[in-house]
Write a structure and sequence with these properties.
This protein is globular. 18% of the residues are buried. Helices cover 19% and strands 40% of the residues. It has 2 helices and 13 strands. The strands form 3 sheets. The protein has a 7-stranded antiparallel sheet with strand order 7-6-9-3-2-12-13. A 4-stranded antiparallel sheet has the order 8-5-10-11. A two-stranded antiparallel sheet has the order 1-4.
Length: 225
């Protein structure tokens, strides 16, 4: 039946119902849009963690024990409901494939976390004990930059290129974070390392010197600090 054939009161009720249906539909669409927007603005459940390598590392040799000092940056790019927990950081170096198969790959352990301060008696920056190895948290507001002293009691130094990894182990069951790196040593630098006297300032290796332009490895740059 056409609207024109209906009584005036019926036509009014039909128009009212139609308007009510459209209002309800628009309200539902608006609620859906607000809900979707809210979900996109909520922090993600899991933090997106990244590991950055520094431009330099320090190396020392005392009594057959080799130390490597490295300060990675562990951070999250976005806020998250869950806090990232790091329970271990590992350093591995292995001789390049061109080396003799008898060349041993050093296995480093996290000895301690250190801090660097200026010492007047040495007239240079020097490292001091800060903390024993321990898990640490990472948030968007608080990136973590532990200055880690790794050590290995056995490293059969030979000249050449060493490739390796810095591995960050997380307390959750998410996969580990791995960054690749490499260090180049020549015989003269090995001689310097192996003739270090106790308490001597470590030597510095950098990835932003001219020698690193071709391979992006850490190359000897002199006394640290």
């Amino acid at each position: 039946m056409r609207d024109a054939d209906l009584p005036v009161s019926s036509r009014r009720r039909r128009r009212t119902r139609a308007v009510h249906t459209w209002v309800t539909t628009l309200a539902a669409l608006a609620a859906l849009a607000i809900s979707v927007f809210g979900l996109t603005q909520l922090p993600s459940e899991e933090p997106r963690t990244e590991v950055g390598l520094p431009k330099s590392l320090q190396m020392a040799w005392e009594g057959g024990v080799t130390s490597v000092f490295l300060q990675p940056t562990v951070s999250t790019r976005f806020d998250a409901q869950n806090v990232e927990m790091v329970n271990d950081v590992q350093l591995r170096l292995r001789p390049d494939s061109t080396f003799s198969s008898r060349t041993m790959a050093p296995r480093f352990a996290w000895l301690r976390t250190v801090k660097w301060t200026y010492r007047e008696d040495k007239e240079a920056l020097w490292y001091e004990f800060l903390a024993h190895p321990a898990p640490f948290t990472v948030t968007q507001e608080q990136p973590h930059q532990p200055y880690i002293q790794f050590f290995t009691p056995v490293w059969n130094f030979v000249p050449g290129r060493y490739t390796g990894t810095l591995t960050v182990e997380r307390a959750s069951d998410r996969k580990t974070l791995v960054r690749s790196l490499c260090v180049v040593l020549n015989q003269g630098e090995i001689d310097l390392l192996q003739t270090m006297v106790r308490g001597q300032q470590p030597y510095e290796f950098r990835s932003d010197v001219a020698a690193a332009d071709a391979d992006a490895c850490y190359h000897f740059s002199g006394v640290a600090g």
